[in-house]
Design brief:
7 strands; alpha/beta; 4-stranded parallel β-sheet; 5 helices
C-alpha cells in the first residue's frame, strides 16, 4: 500500500529513514519524523538525540528479532558446511576429492548469546564445539581455543569493548587452513 508514499535520496526531504547497519547523522535530515531500524543492533541509532528532536524511533518486533537470530544462525551453519565441502560436488571437471570428516573438526563459537547458542545447538551433533564468551571465560583462554579451531564463528555485540575484537594478534593465532566466519559488525580489524 504505497499510496501517498514516495521515496527520495535527498536527506533534507526525507521524513522517514529506514536504517540498516550504517550510522545516521540526524542534522543531515531536516524533515525527519521517524526512524525504523531494520536488524537487531542499536549501536548506530541515536535514540537520545532523536527523542530530543521529537523523532520517533522504532525497532523490529520481538518475534522478528527471534527470526533474525534464527536466520543468522542458520546462515552461519550453512557457511561452515559450504566451507568444509566447497570443492565437493563439482561435476565439470570431475575429480575425486577426499572429504573432511566433520566429527573430527573443531568449531569455536565466540559469543554464546542469542545467535551463538543457536549455532552451537545446530552444529553440536556434527562437530567438536568449543566456546568462548567474555562472561564465562578468561582472556588467556582465547589463544589456545583459536589456535586449535578448524572453524571460528564470531557472534558478539558491537560495543566499545568489542570493537575490533579480532585484531591482527588474534588473527595470527588462527591455524593455517582454518575458516573464520564473522556475523558481528565491527569485530575484525
Amino acid at each position: 500500500c504505497n499510496e501517498g508514499l514516495s521515496f527520495t535520496d535527498l536527506k533534507n526531504e526525507a521524513e522517514i529513514a529506514i536504517l540498516g547497519s550504517k550510522p545516521i547523522t540526524l542534522n543531515e535530515f531536516k524533515s525527519l519524523k521517524a526512524i525504523f531500524r531494520v536488524g537487531i543492533g542499536r549501536d548506530n541509532v541515536p535514540e537520545i538525540e532523536a527523542a530530543e528532536k521529537g523523532i520517533t524511533v522504532r525497532f523490529p518486533s520481538d518475534e522478528t528479532v527471534k527470526i533474525i537470530y534464527r536466520e543468522t544462525a542458520s546462515f552461519t551453519c550453512s557457511l561452515i558446511l559450504r566451507m568444509a565441502y566447497n570443492n565437493i560436488g563439482e561435476i565439470d571437471p570431475w575429480h575425486r576429492e577426499i572429504r573432511k570428516t566433520l566429527s573430527k573438526q573443531t568449531l569455536l563459537v565466540i559469543g554464546t548469546g542469542n545467535i551463538g547458542s543457536r549455532v552451537i545447538k545446530r552444529m553440536e551433533n556434527f562437530m567438536n564445539i568449543t566456546t568462548y564468551d567474555i562472561i564465562q571465560n578468561k582472556e588467556q583462554e582465547l589463544e589456545p581455543l583459536i589456535s586449535s579451531a578448524d572453524y571460528i564463528t564470531l557472534h558478539i555485540p558491537k560495543d566499545k569493548n568489542n570493537n575490533a575484537f579480532f585484531d591482527a594478534k588474534k588473527l595470527s593465532w588462527i591455524k593455517t587452513g582454518a575458516t573464520l566466519i564473522n556475523t558481528a559488525r565491527g569485530s575484525i580489524v
